[in-house]
Structure of Acyl-coenzyme A thioesterase THEM4:
Amino acid sequence: MAEQTVGQVHFSEVDIPTAEVDHREAVTGGLAASVRELVDATIRTTVDDDEIAAVRAELDLLTARLRTAQIPGPAGVRYNREGRSWGWGNAVIGQRNAIAPPLVIVHADDAETAHAEVTLGAAYEGPPGMVHGGVSALLMDQVMGETASQFKRLTMTGTLTLRYLRPLPLGPISIDCRVANEVGRKVFVEASIGNADGIAVEATGVFIIPSWAVMDEETGETEGWRRSAEG
Amino acid sequence: MAEQTVGQVHFSEVDIPTAEVDHREAVTGGLAASVRELVDATIRTTVDDDEIAAVRAELDLLTARLRTAQIPGPAGVRYNREGRSWGWGNAVIGQRNAIAPPLVIVHADDAETAHAEVTLGAAYEGPPGMVHGGVSALLMDQVMGETASQFKRLTMTGTLTLRYLRPLPLGPISIDCRVANEVGRKVFVEASIGNADGIAVEATGVFIIPSWAVMDEETGETEGWRRSAEG
């Protein structure tokens, strides 16, 4: 496994064929989908205390079975030599992370706009029956960061400003995002989250391309990548 | 069960003694703590596909047991006649919500400042090894909203502005928050999230006291509450 460090951020190259990565993602992602159901049931169940204690005891045994072999820390972001990358632990899009809805973000061909739809259930509640305002921020931050990066460069969130127009009920929601402008190493991105009744929260963000990550137009390499490859 | 509607937000009065609420919170909160461990193990496990399938099958049975009796929708925010309130499904502080770390927020006696500490693991990852920028926003939004409300009035997030100063590694983090100013129905709140190395993200927010929720200083009631009590 090779390690590349871009600023303080570590990416790991792993020598696994893409077909194997896809298969593993399906298997472990399926487990995470089941865990999401459990998260929801844990919030909503009204079974009695004894049954909860019994379920918990069996659950702890299942967790112990999963922990008999595990990586020492977080999942990180990995990639293979075929260019497939995966961040299974990401809090918004991580296929193996039951905290993530997970959001599936569709980027337009020109990579300047993006769209995502998902149904948010009981686990994403803030005000009674409503999506937590911070959850709206969390989801938009991910969509905006991806859109700013256009999958060809590293960007970091500089500032994020959110305007809350009205409460957003739990249920089906959608997010739209676009690159509004780009000046030097600053990428200005706009986004909104809402539902069939209209927009609930608007966001603007300034995403920064770190100076050590400005891409060489000819080679597609950044100073940071070159430095780490040389180092 | 009585229902009170403040704007679009529904609060439910439930006739359960506080001791019973506390007991139920401990039992179901314990289950959620176990589910958090499972969420982490699901991200990090390296056991083989067959074992994952076997664990998943047993897990689905446990979820089905919890679902034999459940509330029809999200947990909402409830309160009893003794003044105990609980929002077990809240995405940040919900004791029964495995998505919530959960954050325990300590408000100062004067309710003008608040502090919270928690350790964030693999499930809160954004950039490799780092807290997701949107997770920082999510946690601060909750702390800021509570601090703006001072537990005596309803406030709604108006705007939230976040400045990202540096990446925040997964691990122990702390949040500080204070009311900076108050003008009419606007409450200006400042917050920061960081660790032993200093502040990583700063936030400022404007929280709005809806006109229908301005409290009568003498009775402690709001127009909204009065309207719903009369309605």
